[in-house]
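Customer ticket, subject: "Can you confirm the structure for RNA polymerase sigma factor?"

Message body: Hello, I'm evaluating your service for our small team and ran a test protein. I'd like someone to confirm that this is what the system normally returns, since I don't have a reference to compare against.
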Amino acid sequence: MTDARPPGADEAAFIAAVRSGDAARFALITERHRRELQVHCYRMLANYEDAQDLTQETFLRAWHKRESLRGDATLRTWLYRIATNACLDFLDKRNDRIPVPFELPDPGSEVPHLQPYPDRMLPEDPQESAVARETIELAFIVAVQHLPPRQRAVFVLRDVLGWPASQAADALELTVASVTSALQRARVTMRRRLPGRRLDWRSPATHELSDDERGVVKSYIDAHERNDLDGLMSLLREDLRFAMLPAPGTLVMTAEEAVDGWVSGGLFQRGRDDWRGVATTFNRMPAAALYLRSPDDPEYRLFAIAVLRVVDGKIAELTGFDAAGRPWPGLPPTLSVVADVTAE
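Agent reply: Thanks for trying us out. I re-ran your input and got the following:
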């Protein structure tokens, strides 16, 4: 998403708002960039709620620094620079966000603050949407979290947004040589974290779900609603990677081990066997929102979100998120007994 356009009408309107002190006009102009900045913050932080907060912090900083926008940069570039540094300041203050060394066993699992990103909040800009799936899938987001913060920023600015080295160096107050070195190290880590995955982030990429993916989500929900454990087991690969956030740890297990583990944890047992599911998408990936009804409850309540990676018609990775008692964008907190809901 290289932004090489010369400053134009957007910047002229912004500068006019700054000169007149028109805060409302300033907010209207910058608001157009909210969704893409929020995705940028999410890539940096892996947490949807933090991305919302840091996007708002970006707009506050932009207002306070409004006089610093000159005619040598576009408004979008200027806002991305502010957002990137706001995220870096946030990471500098959070000891719980220190990357786990790659050498530890299965470091990809140690991102307990990971949250899924609702597709309906993704940018509507066609150019940004074209690369969204490649750069917002959970595996990519987790891999990015294992880069040190400034290396992470360099990687996102250079290889995701397509900024030239000089522009990234200026934004991060680094030398071009430092940016080049950081990018080389980041690419090595990303290749190790995503073996066999597509690594050309700036090329056009599909973000539509395949028929296989849609079919697997439907079958996954049907198996829950029928308490069909054999059917559920048949959907899982024998080398399933499973995680349930916020609990740390990704386990590799057989389909039978996965289902047996869920049953031994109390699911599909009397009192926890009345399911409804909603097919949806998070992070441009197929997902199921699972609702559970207790015997005395007149409604099904949101219980968990399962984000799936489907390979050859089977679930290869299942990342679950505890969703009980909290709102999730685009999902109703409850379903009535007769409800038939499909989320987009």
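A couple of notes from the result: Residues 238 and 254 are 4 Å apart (CA to CA). The longest strand covers residues 299-311. Feel free to reply with more questions.
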